């Protein structure tokens, strides 16, 4: 793809070599849009052909667990099974078989395969923040929202939070807010009950 | 151990500058020891895309005009509400109306200033061997340049430089289009012929002459003869201002064009204000009778406005034409030099 991709996004003109790796913006030769293309050596590097696995020549040689006719080159770091060059997947300096890789992705034990995380802490905080202004006008909604925020915070406390902000600060803020809201809402309900039943 | 590796020994992800301006979705770029992480955060979910430093083939930046368009849009809205504030103050409208208009005008003006302060906009992409990902978080040119310069050093630290590969003989031979190279060198900035500017200054002079005539002959013919070239000049000024961006148009000519647009727009805006909002606010019955409304503009006001506009056009028109003459002469000399020695210019 490389060569075809280094084209102006607007007019699809292929950029000449002198336009690449400029320090500042240069004009596209086709449409004169100012642009800058920073190209790295990986762009020029020829792709290595994929390994398909070497066939067994001698009966005594260890064979791949998944391909009995192919020569084993490395054991899986996850399950210990012998793997041929075709089955060997190198990830984070570890050799894994496809099954361990799949299991790692499903169980989320390999962080570098994780591409999505639910943000329970943000959700709990959002519920608590929405509930705050409703304390005085609709305390029953606040009661529900604060309880939900508290439940989410406690239920998911041990689960991993965001990959980039690995702390539980939002949970703590959400819990504090929810507790305050619950206290206020209950107090308002208490005053209402007192007002209804004990007012002459 | 490389410098980058030492630096990131204690932290998993280092945030890089730039983020998207969306309310419900935020994209940010993070740098880890061996990869770039593009994290997109919504209310309850965070998605990640990783680009390993060894696999990144290119990063592209392309300037866009989104910022200019947003500025024009917000500026017009701020101006409109500014006129309403002025009208509200002059005609003693209720205080809460004045406050509301002032707040809204200030809000739009603030957004315009903020947008201008952030600088020009751009589109940024990251390319690997198998896909191309837009980096929406690098939407401002200055931020994108800063981040790309920083990443360039780190990625070259991992991959080496293109020069290293040339030594190993691994570079795939690229066909270099000499004609495109020459065009690129000639047009490090886009070449503009200046025909729109020429037409603009021609119409400015015409508007100045007819405007001056209108000062002495109060009749519908000279007024119409003035209005038509003035409006054409305004439209031409707008086109010229847009076309002169990122071109080789000299700074003096750009300034003259901007002044021409500003003075004509200001006078047109004053007329509009005087003929509509001000008059209707003073006499609501005018809203039903446009002829009466336009006829109610004071003679003194039209005389001063016409005089100022004619004077400005008399100065700007010839000045612009003179500037275009100088610029075209310089361009002709440059082209003559290129014709004599094209090969020398084609060499980088």
What would you say about this model in short?
The complex is a heterodimer of chains A (200) and B (348). By secondary structure, chain A is α+β, with helices and mostly antiparallel strands.
In words, what does this structure look like?
- The complex is a heterodimer of chains A (200) and B (348).
- In chain A, the strands form three sheets. Chain A has a two-stranded antiparallel ribbon with strand order 1-2.
- In chain A, 38% of the residues lie in helices and 10% in strands.
- In chain A, helix 4 runs parallel beside helix 6 and helix 5 runs antiparallel to helix 6.
- Chain A contains six helices and seven strands.
- Chain A is an alpha+beta fold and 200 residues long.
- The termini of chain A are far apart.
- Chain A folds into three domains: 47 residues, no CATH class; 67 residues, Herpes Virus-1; 79 residues, no CATH class.
- The model of chain A has no long low-confidence stretch (mean pLDDT 82).
- Chain B is α+β, with helices and mostly antiparallel strands and 348 residues long.
- Chain B folds into two domains: 160 residues, PH-domain like; 152 residues, no CATH class.
- Chain B is built from twelve helices and seven strands.
- In chain B, the strands form two sheets. In chain B, strands 1-2-3-4 form a four-stranded antiparallel beta sheet, covered by helices on one side. A three-stranded antiparallel beta sheet of chain B has the order 5-6-7.
- The longest helix of chain B has 42 residues.
- Chain B is flat and about 75 Å long.
- Chains A and B meet through helix 1, strand 1, strand 2, helix 2 and strand 7 of A and strand 3, strand 4, strand 5, strand 6 and helix 4 of B.
- Strand 2 of chain A pairs antiparallel with strand 5 of chain B, so a sheet runs across the interface.
């Amino acid at each position: 793809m490389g060569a075809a991709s280094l084209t102006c996004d607007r007019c699809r003109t292929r950029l000449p070599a002198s336009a690449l790796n400029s320090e500042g913006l240069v004009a596209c030769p086709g449409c004169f849009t100012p642009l800058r293309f920073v190209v790295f050596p990986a762009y020029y590097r020829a792709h290595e052909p994929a390994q398909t696995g070497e066939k067994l020549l001698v009966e005594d040689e260890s064979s791949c667990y998944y391909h009995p006719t192919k020569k084993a080159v490395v054991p899986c770091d996850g399950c210990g099974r012998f793997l041929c060059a075709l089955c060997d997947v190198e990830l984070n300096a570890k050799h894994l078989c496809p099954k361990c890789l799949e299991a790692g992705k499903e169980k989320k034990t390999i962080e570098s395969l994780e591409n999505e995380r639910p943000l329970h802490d943000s959700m709990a905080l959002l519920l608590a923040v929405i509930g705050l202004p409703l304390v005085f006008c609709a305390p029953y909604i606040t009661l529900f929202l604060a309880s939900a925020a508290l439940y989410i915070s406690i239920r998911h406390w041990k689960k991993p939070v965001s990959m980039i902000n690995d702390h539980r600060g939002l949970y703590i803020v959400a819990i504090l807010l929810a507790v305050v809201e619950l206290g206020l809402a209950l107090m308002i309900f208490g005053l209402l009950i007192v007002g209804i039943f004990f007012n002459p | 151990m490389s410098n980058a590796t030492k630096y990131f020994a204690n932290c998993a992800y280092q945030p890089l500058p730039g983020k998207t301006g969306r309310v419900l979705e935020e994209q940010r770029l993070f740098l880890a020891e061996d990869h770039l992480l593009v994290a997109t955060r919504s209310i309850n979910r965070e998605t990640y895309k990783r680009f390993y430093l060894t696999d990144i083939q290119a990063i592209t930046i392309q300037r866009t005009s989104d910022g200019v368009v947003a500025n024009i849009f917000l500026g017009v809205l701020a101006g409109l509400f500014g006129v309403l504030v002025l009208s509200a103050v002059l005609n003693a409208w209720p205080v809460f109306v004045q406050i509301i208009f002032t707040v809204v005008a200030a809000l739009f003006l603030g957004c315009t200033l903020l947008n201008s302060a952030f600088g020009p906009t751009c589109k940024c992409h990251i390319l690997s061997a198998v896909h191309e990902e837009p980096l929406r978080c690098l939407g401002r040119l200055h931020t994108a340049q800063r981040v790309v310069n920083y990443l360039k050093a780190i990625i070259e630290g991992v991959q080496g430089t293109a020069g290293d590969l040339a030594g190993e003989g691994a570079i795939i031979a690229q066909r270099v289009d000499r004609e495109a190279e020459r065009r690129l060198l000639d047009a490090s900035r886009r070449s503009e012929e200046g025909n729109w500017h020429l037409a603009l200054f021609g119409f400015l002079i015409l508007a100045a002459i007819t405007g001056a005539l209108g000062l002495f002959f109060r009749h519908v013919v000279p007024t119409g003869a003035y209005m038509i070239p003035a409006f054409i000049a305004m439209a031409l000024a707008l086109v010229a201002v847009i076309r002169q961006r990122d071109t080789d148009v000299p700074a003096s000519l750009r300034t003259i064009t901007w002044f021409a647009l500003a003075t004509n727009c200001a006078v047109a805006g004053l007329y509009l204000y005087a003929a509509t909002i001000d008059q209707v606010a003073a006499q609501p019955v005018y809203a039903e009778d446009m002829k009466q409304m336009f006829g109610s503009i004071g003679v003194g006001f039209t005389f001063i406005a016409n005089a100022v506009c004619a004077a400005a056009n008399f100065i700007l028109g010839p000045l612009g034409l003179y500037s275009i003459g100088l610029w075209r002469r310089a361009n002709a000399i440059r082209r003559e030099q290129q014709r004599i020695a094209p090969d020398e210019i084609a060499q980088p």
